[in-house]
Design brief:
single chain, alpha+beta, ten-stranded mixed β-sheet, 26 helices
């Protein structure tokens, strides 16, 4: 075996340029997988962290009704004995004007929470310490500290009804870890805030951590036990609604990894076989002079092992470095150690797998080389694929396309759709190979070099084209899926927080007494009314609040974050009457699902309704949703809520103030907006799109470059052919044009098939995402994204073709006379 490695190393040393190209191709394959895993896993972790950051400190919150300002602190002791309550977090938040060390003033919220070793501040502090009980000390979010130039040890003055008080900054906290308290809050001890504002015994919210066994149903079943003026808020609704996003992102990342793995294995295998194929003459001489097949196979295996080792080491390093650069450019998170370890380990495994696959093909090639090859100079197995191979390619294209169409028509599940994606990928590769001949024939009319390129065997071009097509197909499909995930995320956030501005009345108002919301910047207004009813199922009975909407206008202004059922069919059922949408917790308490029938009763009237869907929502909380006509049958009429949507580009906070000024004369009417919280939720998940697109970009760039680099190997193996052309009088420019036309045909064939079939693949991928999210998402092929994919692919191919074109044009006639390449 030592002699085999010695021969393998000698072969590498004798053909350093070819060996370098082979190692580069193998390295790019490993780099592709490593970089895709690093960026993909980091993007997924960004999504998980973003969703977690939207969680508050518990499963449900208790807040004042719209006409109240506080919740009684006595609730803490009353709920402490409930077996379903694990812990509670009482807080009091009041507005204050804070002045930093530089004298800059800013209106913030001073939030008090119980201090102590297990306090909220102790759990989240990232620098310094938490405030002590009863002390004028404050914990400051880092974004506020940056704006006010506050640091550990500095002092901040704050206005309170009892006068200006000075607080020591004793700790800093990352706002992303604060959940619902993340926006412009300063934290101190609860008793300090209560004394400073004269509000002993009052709270503005009470968050409860519940036993997981009852968390989903506890609020619905304990609503009647709440004191007057307090209501439940489903504080985990945002994270619950965005939870499926994590599943969808995982699916996209799995697709990305599969594309990267396939291309990586293909590139490694091509690199290995190309190295052997380029030395067919040498192996023919060795066979003719008595070398045994076993000895030749050992030397080939040793040579490929050396290539694989070098390519894997370089590829892992390049992949990690490339991923780090891309993530830094997109403001993504720094890859964690477990992510790097997993990515490097799989990259090494991919390099070894590619080496094994390449070694099998290379050994098979060596075994087929006859001793007489050195005399004939042409290996039969390296000729044109011929009609038989072309027929096989046609069969693959037809079968794959028909399979994809059948799967699309069946619409039977995510697994079958994934198989449809595989079929489309196979169809794209087959079509790109079939497109080589007609494209070459068309190009042959333009220049003699193109005509000569058309006549040469298509084996090398088919291999490069197939690899590049797979990369383009994967990039287009994944980019479309990423767009679908981003769109679904934005839609879920909008639905969670309801309309831009919400006007509520304590009691329903008749049509002639309701406020008229006519303000510049208002696009639409949807009316609804709230009430109380009892919902009966086959197994349970529950008293619930309801919101009766006008389905013709309400879904144009607001919406529901469906978690099961719902969608366009649910909206149509509500519009037709006879439907009811249930919060997920209420549905679990009633043990019903979409399609089941429940009976809603109020005022002695019972109305049977079909459950059209389940949802989670901050805006509607524990309210069930019915239509106003059904509410009228139950005896509830009038209007108690007006949901207002703003025109595009209108400042929602300013619009809210103007709406409030218009309805100020109507007793019992309040105006609120969740725009600030919604903006924060959107900003937390904005990194999702950037991280996913970064992963796709890395996969496309390295995949296109790696696939294109096989063109260099193909040219290197044709040096004898090019030398013959130079010998018979072909000029340098003509030889370079021969290779350039090859590159053009490859680019057009791979881009055409990859973009066309990739668009259909994106539609299938979007359908998978839609199934995982439980919401309808339409595939959108962004022209800018497509242009970027074309540009990256063309640049990669041009970059990879420059070297081969120059080397081809510099090939000397004496190369063929030397008898070595």
């Amino acid at each position: 075996m030592k002699n085999a490695f010695a021969l393998g190393w000698r072969n590498i040393a004798d053909g350093r340029r070819r060996a370098g190209l082979t190692a580069l191709t193998a390295a790019l394959g490993v780099a592709l997988l490593t970089a895709s895993l690093v960026t993909g896993l980091t993007a997924r972790q960004t999504v998980v962290d973003g969703i977690d950051s939207l969680l508050t400190f518990g499963d449900v919150g208790i807040v004042p009704e719209v006409d109240r300002e506080f919740v009684d602190e006595g609730l803490v002791d009353a709920l402490a004995a409930d077996p379903g309550v694990v812990s509670s977090l009482p807080t009091l938040s009041r507005e204050t004007v804070a002045v930093g060390a530089t004298g800059e003033a800013e209106t913030l919220l001073l939030t008090g929470a119980p201090a102590g070793p297990d306090s909220l501040a102790s759990q989240v502090v990232t620098d310094g310490r938490a405030p002590r009980p009863g002390s004028d000390e404050v914990l400051v979010p880092t974004d506020v500290a940056d704006r006010m130039d506050a640091s550990l040890g500095s002092r901040m003055s704050m206005t309170t009804p009892s006068g200006v008080r000075s607080f020591d900054v004793v700790g800093l906290v990352d706002p992303r870890s604060l959940g619902v308290f993340a926006r412009d809050n300063l934290f101190t001890d609860l008793e300090v805030v209560q004394r400073a504002f004269g509000l002993e015994g009052d709270l503005t919210r009470l968050d409860l951590e519940l036993d997981p066994a009852v968390a989903s149903t506890w609020a619905a079943e304990h609503r009647a036990a709440l004191p007057s003026g307090a209501v439940f808020q489903d504080t985990s609704a945002v994270a619950d609604g965005l939870g499926p996003i994590e599943t969808a992102v995982t699916a996209v990342m799995a697709g990305l990894a599969l594309v990267a793995l396939a291309v990586s294995a293909l590139l490694g295998s091509l690199a290995s076989t190309a190295a052997v194929r380029a030395r067919r003459r040498t192996y023919g001489v060795l066979r003719a002079t008595g070398a045994s097949t076993r000895w030749l196979v050992s030397s080939v295996g040793a040579e490929i092992a050396i290539f694989a080792a070098a390519g894997t080491v370089v590829g892992v390093a390049v992949g990690v470095a490339g991923a780090a650069v891309v993530m830094s450019r997109t403001d993504g998170e720094t890859p964690s150690l477990p992510t790097l370890t997993l990515s490097v380990g799989l990259g090494v495994l991919a390099g070894a797998t590619s080496a094994v696959l390449g070694a099998r093909r290379a050994v098979a090639d060596v075994r087929r080389i006859p001793p007489a090859f050195v005399v004939r100079g042409v290996e039969p197995a390296d000729g044109s694929p011929g009609s038989c191979s072309r027929r096989r390619t046609v069969v693959v294209a037809v079968v794959a396309s028909v399979s994809a169409l059948v799967i699309w028509a069946l619409d039977s599940g995510a697994v079958l759709d994934a198989l449809g994606l595989v079929a489309l990928a196979a169809c794209a590769v087959a079509l790109s190979r079939l497109a080589i001949a007609p494209l070459a024939a068309f190009a042959a009319r333009l220049q003699w070099a193109a005509d000569l390129a058309r006549r040469r065997p298509t084996r090398g071009r088919s291999t490069v084209t197939g690899a590049l097509t797979l990369v383009v197909f994967g990039a287009v499909s994944l980019a479309t899926c990423v767009g679908a995930v981003a769109s679904a995320t934005g839609e879920q956030i909008d639905r969670q927080f309801g309309a831009d501005v919400q006007v509520t009345s304590v009691v329903p108002l008749s049509d002639d007494a309701e406020p008229i919301v006519v303000v510049d910047g208002v696009r639409d207004v949807a009316r609804s009314v709230s009430g109380e009813a009892t919902v009966l199922s086959a197994s349970a009975e529950l008293d619930v609040p309801f919101q009766a909407i006008d389905p013709e206008t309400w879904f144009d202004v607001s919406g529901l974050a469906w978690s099961a059922g719902g969608g366009s069919r649910g909206v149509e059922l509500l519009r037709a009457g006879g439907g009811i949408a249930l919060p997920r917790g209420v549905a679990e308490s009633l043990t019903v699902a979409p399609g089941d029938e429940v009976v809603v009763s109020a005022g002695g009237t019972q109305v049977p309704l079909e459950v059209v869907g389940l949802f989670t929502s901050v805006a509607t909380g524990q309210q069930v949703v019915i239509d106003r006509r059904t509410a009228g049958e139950l005896g509830v009429t009038g209007v108690s809520r007006w949901d207002v949507s703003a025109d595009g580009g209108v400042d929602v906070a300013d619009l809210s103030d103007r709406v409030a000024a218009q309805v100020v004369g109507v007793p019992g009417v309040d105006v609120i907006t969740a725009e600030a919280t919604r903006d924060r939720a959107a900003s937390e998940t904005a990194a999702l799109t950037a991280g996913l697109f970064a992963a796709v970009t890395v996969t496309l760039a390295l995949g296109a470059l790696g696939a294109s680099s096989t063109l260099s190997l193909d040219v290197e193996s044709r040096r004898d052919e090019l030398a013959v052309l130079r010998t018979v009088g072909c000029r340098r420019r003509g030889v370079g044009a021969l290779v350039a036309w090859d590159a053009i045909v490859i680019a057009v064939a791979s881009l055409s098939a990859g973009l066309l079939l990739g668009s259909f693949g994106g539609a299938l991928g979007t359908r998978i995402v839609s199934r995982l999210l439980g919401v309808g998402v339409d595939p959108v092929v962004d022209p800018v994204t497509i242009a970027g994919i074309v540009g990256v692919t063309a640049i990669a191919l041009a970059f990879a073709a420059v070297g081969p074109v120059l080397r081809a044009s510099r090939t000397e006639p004496l190369t063929i006379l030397r008898g070595t390449s």
